[in-house]
Write a structure and sequence with these properties.
The protein is α+β, with helices and mostly antiparallel strands. It has a single domain, classed as 3-Layer(aba) Sandwich (Aminopeptidase). About 30% of the residues lie in helices and about 35% in strands. It is built from four helices and six strands; from the N terminus they run H-H-E-E-E-H-E-H-E-E. It has a six-stranded mixed β-sheet, sandwiched between helices. The radius of gyration is 15 Å and the shape is globular. One of its GO terms (molecular function) is acyltransferase activity, transferring groups other than amino-acyl groups. This is N-acetyltransferase. InterPro entries: Acyl_CoA_acyltransferase, GNAT_dom.
Length: about 160
Amino acid sequence: MVPGTSDLSAVTAIMEHYVEHTVATFNEIPPSTEDWAQRYSALAARGLPFLVAEMAGEVVGFAYVAPWRPQSAYRHTVESTVYLAPGATGHGIGTALLRELIDQATAAGCRQMIAVIADTGSPASAALHRHLGFVDAGRLHAVGVKHGRWIDTMLMQRDLTTPP
C-alpha cells in the first residue's frame, strides 16, 4: 500500500525506535515526518516504490527502494530498505513487504537490488533476503560506530532480471 500522511507519522515512529535503540540503522538522529514526506516525494518522482504494511488498521512496517548511488551509470540499481514495528516480526510481514518491493522495483525497470544489512548479531534480515533470492555480495568491516559499538555491514544482491 502506498503511504498517506498519517502513514508517514507511523513510519517516523517505527524508524525512531530503530535509531534510538538499535544498530540496525546507522542513522543517529531519527528522520522527521517531514523528512519522510520529502523522501517519499523524491522516490515517487523517480517511479520507485515506497510501501507500508498495515495490520488491524495500523502501520506495522514499511519498505522502499532508493537509488544505489547518485552516478547515472547506476540508474538501474537500487538499495532496498525494510523495517517492521517492534512486535510485528515473525508474522510474514517482512516477507510480504520485500516480495512486493521486488515486484514493484522490477516493474519500474530496476535490474539489480542491493541490501546493506548492519551486522546486529541477528541472522533474521539476512535470512529474509536469502529466502527471496538475494546472494551474499560482500562484507564491510567496522564501517559504522553506534552506541559505542563498531559495526560491520553485509552486502547482499538480487538480480531482478531473472527469477530467484
